[in-house]
Amino acid sequence: MVVTKLGPSSWRDALDGATAGVLAPHGYALKPRESLGQPDLDRIFLERCREAFAKLNRTVGQGVIAVVSPHRSEGRSSVAAGLALSLVQDLERQVLLVDLDLRRPGQGVLFDVNDSPGMVEYLENDAPLRLTAGGMSRRLWLLTAGATTGDHVARMAHLVAHSEFFAACRQSFGWTVVDLPPLLETSEASYLAGLADACVLVGRYRRSSIHALSRAVALIPNDRPTGFVLTGNQSRVPAWINRLI
Fold first, then answer.
1. Domains of the chain listed by start with CATH number
2. Which of helix, strand or coil describes residue 201?
3. Is the pTM higher than 0.85?
């Protein structure tokens, strides 16, 4: 049953079907079924996300952006949310935000929606794909991780990685932002990052070590354009990080 859902046309049909009942042909919102809340992200934080995207946009016109970090609690999920919101506001295009941190999903909490049903239920339980709309003119769409246990995580990530999911996202949305699990704590994160068109690496001021960030950069393919966001009180990106990425 799962295998039939993994081809590009099946993913595309699922993504288009999940948005069809909410958007009119001209792009304006119809009667909402469910709506995203507004994450508590300030203007300065969103500007940092914009700066990271500006570097990527010089080489990547559209596609999939993987947001990664060495470890947890470094602000990765907040950066993914801020990046997606910034893209919607600045580019006026349909943007998909995907939570693929199946062990500890964070986007549902940030946007005040239930994590389930999500990606896992679509793959395992024959449930329809659920996308929740919000943001400016309801152009931001969130695909949550769903309910998962430790036994399912590796298999679910493997299914997504070896399917045509990212290809379908490129066809259905101008930009897709993917919140991935920590690079140094999971086996699937680096492989999934390699399937994206660009990456944003997240580090936290006085928490992320030079060694951890260097190891994380080594796991990102050399040919992937990579931006950087430093969370915490310090806003200026150190010169050594710019040289590293």
1. 3-244 (3.40.50.300)
2. strand
3. yes
